UniProtKB/TrEMBL annotation:
Keywords: Methyltransferase, RNA-binding, S-adenosyl-L-methionine, Transferase
Taxonomic classification: Bacteria, Bacillati, Bacillota, Bacilli, Bacillales
Official protein name in the record: Class I SAM-dependent methyltransferase
Keyword match Protein biosynthesis: no
Database matches in CDD domains: AdoMet_MTases
Length: 278
């Protein structure tokens, strides 16, 4: 029985990775909403990355999947501005280029990491925020290894969904089960399982050493409008038909309003650090 459960979990994780790959373009459609409603990454996380990588301010950084530049902003806030950003979505790439136009040392390139021509340039640090799962790990980690200097480092981080089980979250979950049962988060792998899976993927590449995992947690109180706007930036919600998505979000908003108008959202970010093997 235990082996059957473990096998089902593996299948679920594989399916989630497939969903991620299918959804690479969805963030490009909601660039402004993504910038407005997605929470910023914790400042402490960037300190941990720079300490681990022993990075000087002038060292070169590669960011893969910069989106609207939220992680880029975290780097800049610590006065690291020698950044090359790779972004597949044209709207997102333009948004980030405009956002950091006053920093001539920040370059935004509209292409995929797999197709990007680095022209022999090497980097001291490569970061990626909630994006590297879109890349086949057999290709992505090898490519990361190739574009890093000797003993260069990776700092990949993801937001990890944490299910809630209070009355309000159970009511919201019922809406998902009724309208989009594949988004019932009680059936997803646990946060610990998701984090362990990513750690194992990093280790299996065999290209990085001194692998470390750090977690950051905080609670955000959201109004009903803020919460449904946040959900609307999620790629899995963007994949729903317009009718299903609007009905689902309307029901979720109504539930939050009936419960007092606010909902506590547990945010978790997991950071994976590694040093290039030479």
């Amino acid at each position: 029985m235990v082996s059957l459960v473990n096998e089902m979990r593996k299948i679920m994780l594989a399916n989630l990775r497939w969903i991620f790959m299918e959804n690479k373009e969805t963030f490009n459609l909601v660039a402004i909403e993504y910038e407005r409603y997605r929470p910023v990454y914790p400042s402490e996380m960037f300190d941990d990355i720079f300490t681990y990588a022993k990075l000087d301010k002038q060292d070169s950084i590669l960011e893969v999947g910069c989106g609207t530049g939220q992680a880029t902003g975290g780097l800049v806030s610590k006065h690291y501005t020698n950044i090359t950003c790779i972004e597949l979505g044209s709207n997102l790439a333009q948004f980030t280029a405009d956002k950091f136009r006053s920093y001539p040392s920040i370059q935004v390139i509209n292409t995929s990491f797999e197709e990007w021509n680095e022209e022999g340039k090497l980097f001291k640090l490569m970061v990626s925020g909630t994006a590297f799962h879109f890349i086949d790990p057999e290709i992505g980690y090898r490519r990361a290894w190739e574009v890093l200097e000797d003993e260069g480092c990776i700092g990949f981080f993801w937001t990890v969904h944490v299910p809630g089980y209070d009355q309000l979250h159970r009511e919201i979950r019922a809406h998902y089960i009724a309208l989009a049962s594949h988004l019932d988060d009680s059936q997803y792998p646990s946060p610990d399982e998701v984090i362990q899976e990513r750690k194992e993927i990093t280790e299996r590449s065999g290209l990085f050493t001194d692998i470390k995992v750090k977690e950051y947690n905080w609670i955000q109180s959201c109004s009903s409008d803020e919460y449904v706007a946040l959900l609307n930036t999620n790629s899995k919600h963007q994949q729903l038909s317009e009718d299903v998505r609007s009905t689902l979000l309307e029901r979720i908003k109504r539930s939050i309003d009936h419960a007092g108008g606010t909902i506590d959202k547990h945010h978790k970010v997991a950071l994976f650090l590694g040093r290039k093997k030479v």
